[in-house]
Amino acid sequence: MSQSLVTDRPRFRVFGPRDLDSIPQLASISPSERHAMQVVSRVLPFQVNPYVIEQLIDWRSVPDDPIFQLTFPQRGMLEKDDFARVERLLTRRAPAEVVARAAARVQRRLNPHPAGQQALNVPTEDGARLPGLQHKYRETVLFFPAQGQTCHAYCTYCFRWPQFVGLEDLRFASREADDLVRYVRAHEEVTSVLLTGGDPLVMRTSVLRRYVEPLLDPSIEHLASIRIGTKSVAYWPHRFLTDPDAEDLLRLFEQVVASGRSLAFMAHYSHPRELSTPVARAALRRILATGAVVRCQAPIVAHVNDDAQTWADLWRMQVQLGAIPYYMFVARDTGARRYFEVPLARAFDVYRDAFSRVSGLARTVRGPSMSATPGKVVIDGVARVRGEAVFALRLLQARDARWVGRPFFAKMDEKAAWFDDLVPAFEEESFFFSDELHALQATGDARSWPHKPATRSLKLLPDDDDLAA
Ligand SMILES: *Cc1c(COP(=O)(O)O)cnc(C)c1O
Ligand code: SF4
To answer: What is the pLDDT of residue 313?
Structure first.
């Protein structure tokens, strides 16, 4: 098997909305459903490659197949009226720009800019904004390399979809590796840089190298880890095996490890199927062999993974293959969220049930977690306190480092599906951080890290040989 993995060199190619009538596997779907996919894809385009089509989707169980649901547009992703409006234009063969305008109107109704991503988290240097950087939590800087702003999937619940549909230009992205290095060097509180996108591993190795190598400079001692957020491990594992620059990519990983830092993959696996193919497993083995760490995260979404057995299998398989379960997210309030929405109470049940089925090695996973305006809010449980049903909540990460880890409570609401749906329990006026959050937002900076933890150099003590020399 491993022989053929290396001798077969599947070529990466992308299928999108234009190919809906030419992907042979889709021929098994009824013409009316294919038509529905055409309509939805005008508003929420998709992107898929031959590996996902041929090896991840089980076409016998389409349309219910979870990977099919995750990848291809579905009628229910649009509100009935919106669907009908776009459909009418297509049936009437309206000019392309008329359809595009109607699609854009629908897109703008899908909350393309949730949680103040754009306005609030971009740092400044000498008064100038540094596009392509986000610094919301003290220890970690996010970097969006311009060439890595597309992705292996266009998940329609992902907060990145506005970028994929061209609703948002690449204001978020940067070509300036220099900005990143200067910023990290100047900010000793930053111990982790997270390269994200899109998917940074859609970049060629030579381009990725331009961003990573400067960070390895010994003068940036306080940088302990470099992370890469990626779907490629799940949707195009050939990136690590047979792509023309796969070897060079693995050498780059080794270089990071050799610099004395942790290289961590924040791998987006949504379903155990993605870890089941020989290619996927071979890719994981190769990544781990470079000394890198693989941590796994994904949102819980309806039609794909909203049941406990799926998550228990996913976490167990990750541990078995040497990867670390890390976060279960709640999908944000954007895009096709109605279609994928899982109420918070239900998400917590799934988390708890799955958690109870796995060994301690898999219980590194935290969730369900919402990346909301104040920070990453995790649901710790549903409890009854003096007769009132409440959600017990906690911030895992926060705009103000002092808010982290303090329990707080919201009224239990079976239908609540996002942080903004929650109201404080016990007749309180607001959550404990609300006033400070508003004050921070008013300053336009919206971050507060009054206590800089002292950083400590990770320099090794000389070993005996050095002493003897
Ligand atoms: C999740 C996230 C991070 C990373 O948080 P960790 O808990 O360190 O994984 C950093 N910045 C933002 C804006 C995030 O949403
Ligand atoms: S970043 Fe993850 S969730 Fe977003 S589109 Fe890519 S694969 Fe999907």
So the answer is: 98
Peptide bond into 198 cis (omega under 30): yes
In the reported structure, the alpha carbon of residue 18 is separated from the centroid of ligand 1 by a whole-number distance in angstroms of 35
Q: Under 8 Å CB-to-CB from 310, ≥6 apart: which residues?
A: 66, 271, 272, 354
Digit-coded pLDDT (tens) for 243-254: 999 999 999 999
Pairwise CA distance, residues 237 & 307, whole Å: 26
**Ligand 1 centroid distance, CA of 370 (Å):** 11
Q: Output the pLDDT for position 160.
A: 80
The rounded Å distance from CA 158 to ligand 2 centre is: 6
| Ligand 2 cavity residues, CB under 6 Å | 151, 153-155, 158, 160, 199, 231, 268
Residue 324 near residue 292, CB atoms below 8 Å? no
Which of the residues in the chain have pLDDT under 70?
A: 1-8, 115-120, 168-172, 445-446, 449-469
Locate the domains of the chain by residue range: 3-108, 114-460
**CA–CA dist 355, 70 (Å, integer):** 23
Fill in the amino acid letter for 57.
Answer: I
Closest CA to 69 of 46, 87, 42: 46
Residue 411 contacts residue 425 (beta carbons within 8 Å)? yes
Mutate which of 118, 138, 140 for ligand 1 pocket (most atoms within 8 A of beta carbon) = 140
Exposure string (b/e) for 452-463, b if CB count within 10 Å is 16 or more? Answer: eeeeeeeeeeee
Q: Which ligand neighbours the alpha carbon of 340 most closely?
A: 2
Domain with residues 114-460, CATH architecture: Alpha-Beta Barrel (3.20)
Q: Calculate Rg over the CA atoms of the chain.
A: 23
Q: How far apart are CA 416 and CA 332, in angstroms?
A: 13
- How far, in Å, is the centroid of ligand 2 from the Cα of 155? 5
Tokens 């840089």 locate to 193
If you measure from the C-alpha of residue 162 to the centroid of ligand 2, how many angstroms do you get, rounded to a whole number? 12
Indicate which ligand has the atom closest to the C-alpha of 115.
1
